[in-house]
Design a protein that fits this description.
This protein is 56% helix and 16% strand. The chain is an alpha+beta fold. The protein has 2 domains: 2-56 and 280-413, no CATH class; 64-273, no CATH class. Strands 1, 2, 3, 4, 5, 6, 7, 8, 9 and 10 form a 10-stranded mixed β-sheet that branches. A hairpin with a 2-residue loop joins strand 6 and strand 7. Helix 2 packs antiparallel against helix 10.
């Protein structure tokens, strides 16, 4: 209880000293405020980017393998001249994988046809992405429906003239009405809308079904060569639940080598891509950004810490008489030390809170200007506040210790 009472008195002394020197207190806060603001802002920006990009990557499926001509990333050398000579994924590869795979829950063959202009009456949508896929597309990708349904097995097999469109297309072509059951012209043919994808919004990788027009592969097969490289054919394999992705990749690799009759020792002429490749690359980039932001913030805090230490030495010098009187009246060394140490901590804590409030206010500004929701996690708040307290202790301990060791007689006699 005695310690708590002394702590309270030390806090009141410190607070009174800060209140009496408002301008100096404000100037002392700037360095710490800028440093804490930089650290929390960078960490929050990185967390926001990571979350948004991870949402985009999650659409690709955490247990899906993409059999394609080109790899998404490379560990070092990128021999593009070898990749150019590879064949694209063929329907034969797709059919054989369907027949032989034991680890796959679903396999789809998918192509991206082109960006087209879609019209209905006097309404038009430019830049609609026309895609085509086999029946298992709804099992290898993650998406929801706002209205309607997916292709039936019969529609996929017969290449029925039906389509599923994105939310943006539905809103622009049929404002205030329903899109399901209407006919639109795609690739010179009329197709009936049977479903509308749920609104997804823009993401960091540009993966969105909002402006997509999805056809059955067999319908597109009647109009174009779906195995042509210009349509970026891809085989997507979704592994069964409980089976590790590496096991799925291992089986697919062995099957593809057998399907394409590759001899032992011969290089693969296909790439097996997965969403974790992008996640790993993003983690590397974000770690670098985090370190860079931390270094910049620490330099700012270092400058602010020197400023706080300098102000505390000035404060000790100004209050030497008072320290002497306090000690002559029986004040212990730790009471004097706590008095100045608490003052330093309060200064830095105030700077940290102001920096935190600036970041919090900035989240609303970014949301209003760029329509991006910035996340401010509790861990970043704790890092900011903890750093403020740490800087306060480091900056104030030496001046506080110096004040606690003053001789009371010499202190009273000083001017």
């Amino acid at each position: 209880m005695i310690f708590l009472k002394l702590f309270r008195e030390s806090f009141l002394f410190a607070f009174d000293a800060l209140r009496q020197n408002r301008l100096r207190t404000l100037l002392s806060l700037l360095g710490v405020t800028i440093g804490i603001f930089t650290i929390i802002a960078v960490f929050s920006a990185v967390d926001t980017l990571r979350d948004n990009l991870q949402k985009s990557v999650n659409k690709l499926g955490s247990n899906s393998v993409y059999v394609e001509k080109w790899p998404w990333v490379s560990d070092g050398e990128y021999p593009w001249w070898k990749f150019m000579q590879r064949p694209v994924s063929k329907l034969k590869d797709f059919n054989e994988l369907q027949r032989r795979s034991q680890t796959a829950a679903a396999i789809s063959y998918e192509i991206g046809i082109d960006n087209r202009t879609i019209k209905y009456g006097s309404n038009t949508v430019d830049g609609a992405q026309v895609d085509a896929a086999t029946q298992d597309h709804n099992k290898t990708w993650n998406f929801d429906f706002q209205d309607g349904r997916y292709f039936t097995e019969m529609e996929s097999q017969t290449g029925a003239p039906v389509t599923i469109i994105g939310n943006d297309i539905a809103e622009n072509l049929f404002p205030g009405g329903t899109a399901v059951g209407k006919k639109i012209k795609v690739m010179g043919r009329y197709v009936t809308i049977i479903g509308v994808f749920a609104k997804e919004g823009k993401d960091m990788l540009g993966i969105s079904a909002d402006k997509e027009v999805l056809l059955t592969l067999n319908f597109a097969h009647n109009l174009i060569d779906v195995q042509n490289e210009r349509y970026r054919p891809s085989i997507v394999v979704r592994g069964k639940d409980g089976i590790p992705i590496e096991e799925v990749k291992g089986e697919i690799k062995g099957l593809m080598r057998a399907i394409r009759s590759l001899r032992p020792g011969q290089d693969d002429n296909f790439a097996l891509n997965e969403s974790t490749m992008l996640s790993d690359q993003l983690d590397i980039v974000f770690k670098i950004i985090n370190v860079a932001g931390l270094i910049i913030g620490l330099f700012s805090i270092l400058v602010g810490g020197f400023g706080i230490a300098n102000i505390m030495f000035v404060s000790v010098k100004e209050r030497t008489n008072i320290i002497g009187i306090q000690k002559s009246l029986g004040a212990k060394n730790y009471f004097i030390l706590l008095q100045f140490l608490i003052e330093s901590i309060i200064l830095c804590l105030m700077g940290g809170l102001i920096g935190l409030l600036l970041v919090y206010g900035g989240t609303f500004v970014v949301k209003w200007v760029a329509d991006v929701a910035v996340v401010l996690y509790l861990k970043n708040i704790i890092i900011g506040i903890g750093t403020s307290v740490g800087i306060g202790i480091i900056s104030g301990i030496i001046p506080a210790w110096f004040a606690s060791k003053l001789d009371p007689v010499e202190a009273i006699r000083s001017n």
